[in-house]
Amino acid sequence: MAMKHICVQMLDWPARGMVFDALRQDPPFWGASWGRRPAAESDVEAVTRRELAKWPQLIPIYGHRMTPAAPSPSGSPVFSVWQTDVIFYGANLLEYLANEMARDGSLRLSPRSVDVPYWTKFVEAANSADVI
Predict the structure, then answer these.
(1) Strand partners for 59
(2) Tens digits of residue pLDDT in 97-122
(3) Is the peptide bond prior to 27 cis by the omega test (within 30 degrees of 0)?
(4) Superkingdom of the source (predicted)?
(5) Does the structure show a pLDDT above 90 at 46?
(6) Are 78 and 61 in contact (CB under 8 A)?
(7) Mean pLDDT, the chain, as a whole number?
(8) C-alpha–C-alpha distance, residues 118 and 124, integer Å
(9) Which pTM was predicted?
(10) How far apart are CA 75 and CA 56, in angstroms?
(11) How far are the Cα atoms of 64, 105, 130 from residue 60, in angstroms, in the given order?
């Protein structure tokens, strides 16, 4: 039962992080297309989760490194997701593994061959709420 709980928590990691920033960041993170930000925290969470549910789900690979859930095209990128700080951590799984295990701490990013709806645009816009 404990392992199932951990897995559910990790699948919910992107949503929890985005909700946290919508509630606690100054100024609050709020998507431009989400309408007016509600006053009640429970409504902020509900809207944030509803909007993020439109995005492809990410599944954890290791820690906060994630890739799109199936069905996703071969060669999908790997993201590092920490609240609304989302970056590419590899153009694909093999590059991610090389980056994660680099002894010199270097990060190599090749051109991506796959764009992930919403996530790619968000990262390319430097995590701007204005693009969502």
Answers:
(1) 67
(2) 999 888 887 888 898 889 999 999 99
(3) yes
(4) Bacteria
(5) yes
(6) yes
(7) 92
(8) 10
(9) 0.88
(10) 15
(11) 6, 21, 26
